[in-house]
Amino acid sequence: MIKFDIKSPDTGLQTAIQDKIDNLNKPKGSLGRLESLAMQICLIQQTPEPRLKHPCHLLFGGDHGIEREGVSVSPREVTWQQMLNFAGGGGGVNMFCRQHGFKLYIVDVGVDYDLASCPRIIDKKIARGTANFLYGPAMTAGQYDKAIGTGAEMAARCHAEGCNVICIGEMGIANTSPSSVWMSLLGGVPLAECVGAGAGLDAPGVSRKLTILARAVDKFKADTPDSNAPETIIRYFGGFEMVAAVGAMLKAAEMKMTVLIDGFIMTACALAATQLAPEAKEYMIFGHVGDECGHRRLLDLLGAQPLLNLGLRLGEGTGALCSYPIIVSAVRMINEMNNFENAHITKYF
């Protein structure tokens, strides 16, 4: 099992950073959330003059055995079709990466299709989808380790290229189902409050999805001796793309990178990551709250304040990418605004 050495950012510079923010030529606290974002990024980078360098976006793709139970309105083949669409530059994630200057990595960790011949897709396939967790664990211990390791490897690759701010997204039909179960079991929330429409189920479809997931959870609790252990829960229900995202988040935090968190699925991955290493939360910025049932509650579990509320539910990392200009504004604020003394403005507080 891979271990991560994640430490909370040193707060020794906090007073000096706060003094710098308070002495910018503005009323104290008047730039609100930008000020707290600037503080967070300064502490992550351990400098009062932070820089955002070579932003990268990791998009992990994988299929899910639970999809065979009809828990998603979208068919399984949409996963590989969208992966090829991303490789061709035609997805929402491509557009936002181009707009905001992110280098995009598309990584196949478990798509049920042969994508090896596509040069734009990094082949890290563990299996052609997870097993169906209605009947047993979604993945073996070895597969879990490989997925965590793949995510960590990709985050380290970005860091080696000079990246210090990373965004993570996913593509995997039916992955709101494992996300809902993670939320329930890791967060102590009744499953019914965690299960939503996903890509567009109607009310009867949501009810059926809940019934199937409840059966899976009951079997898991009955058959699994260490059913309260976070790693056991993550492995039993997770998708390869989700566990890879957890590994990427943990490695990025270990390397003191700023980590942008997207919607419901990636927030469930953030919950999983912080269950394994609570300090990882201090490196995370939560891009938005989406329309999927339970996302707001999931953010509350993490004590997270999302930057945007635009009714998004696309996934891919698109909501986090949309929030990036706000993060840029926070960094520009602390680096580029004049202070009272230099501007010859009377400090009035």
Structural notes for this entry:
It is built from 13 helices and six strands. The radius of gyration is 20 Å and the shape is globular. 46% of the residues lie in helices and 9% in strands. Helix 1 packs antiparallel against helix 2, helix 4 (92-100) runs parallel beside helix 12 (318-336) and helix 6 runs antiparallel to helix 8 (230-237). Strands 3-2-1-4-5-6 form a six-stranded parallel β-sheet, with helices on both faces. It is an alpha/beta fold and 349 residues long.
Low-confidence stretches: none
How many helical stretches?
13
> Largest sheet, described in full?
6 strands, parallel
- Number of beta strands: 6
Shape: globular
Ends apart, CA distance between termini:
53 Å
- Percent strand: 5-15%
State Rg: 20 Å
Order of helices and strands: HHEHHEEHEHHHHEHEHHH
Helix/strand/pairing class, anyone? alpha/beta
| Major sheet strand order | 3-2-1-4-5-6
Describe the structure concisely for a colleague.
This protein is of the alpha/beta class and 349 residues long. The protein contains 13 helices and six strands.
Write the layout of secondary structure elements.
Blueprint: H1 14-22, H2 32-45, E1 56-62, H3 77-87, H4 92-100, E2 103-110, E3 121-123, H5 141-160, E4 165-171, H6 176-187, H7 203-223, H8 230-237, H9 240-254, E5 258-261, H10 264-276, E6 284-286, H11 295-301, H12 318-336, H13 340-343
Parallel strand pairs: 1-2, 1-4, 2-3, 4-5, 5-6
Helix pairs in contact: 1-2, 2-12, 4-12, 5-9, 6-8, 6-10, 9-10, 10-11
What structural keywords apply?
about 350 residues; alpha/beta; six-stranded parallel beta sheet; 6 strands
